[in-house]
Amino acid sequence: MVDFQYKDFYDVRDLEEIVRILRAPGGCPWDAEQTHESIRRNFLEEAYEAVEAIDEESPDHLKEELGDVLLQVMLHARMEQEAGRFDLDGVADGICKKLIFRHPHVFGDVQVSGTGEVLSNWEDLKRQEKGQATNTDALSAVARALPALWRAEKVQKKAKKAGFDWPDISGALDKLSEELEELKTAVAQGTNVEEELGDLLFSAVNVSRFLKVDPEEALGKATDKFISRFSKVEEQAAAQNRSMQGMTLEELDMLWERAKET
Asked: Would you tell me the crossing angle of helices 215-239 and 193-210 to the nearest 10 degrees?
């Protein structure tokens, strides 16, 4: 039995202590074995679950999921503390200094006209802080671990700041059509299919950026719509005492068109 004080209400420091106990000798064998790499995916999954709670507009669910995200932060910070590199206070110190540095209009004497100027200054200060001397440095600094659509969007936005962008959406739409034709050619020839498909997706993100549509959200909603219509097709097939696997593509397409109408 570990030496631990039970409470009616625990705070952040209590969580830090619980994580220390779990990873210490006599604690939990599983927790003690974990590394940054072994729980990397956990961090991503917990973050996405917190976003889902936001979408649900459920404060109770959000509180729970933010706790799970905070646990991941605690675990990673504890691992670094055990290695003697930094601890949770070091993490807090770093983000505090970053926020103070990037908000000179709050903590300094810089004057801003509104949100647009705040965001512009933020990017300039970020490049200064990270030593990004060129526009390519800024593009390369976009995290590769981001979902590919979001990464493409961020890269395109940074390229736009450098003046590298279509003047309006017509150029982006023409490029999308061009990439589609190149993909068709690649499929017919059986070469460079992955590359051309990537170019098509990248161009689609460009269009979404001009339309101010989040490409991840748009694709997510399209996937939800597909599942909904697929369900209706399956229900219609079942009503005919048939399975989808035993139907022709033409028959399924007819059911799909009906599902679109409901």
From this structure: 110
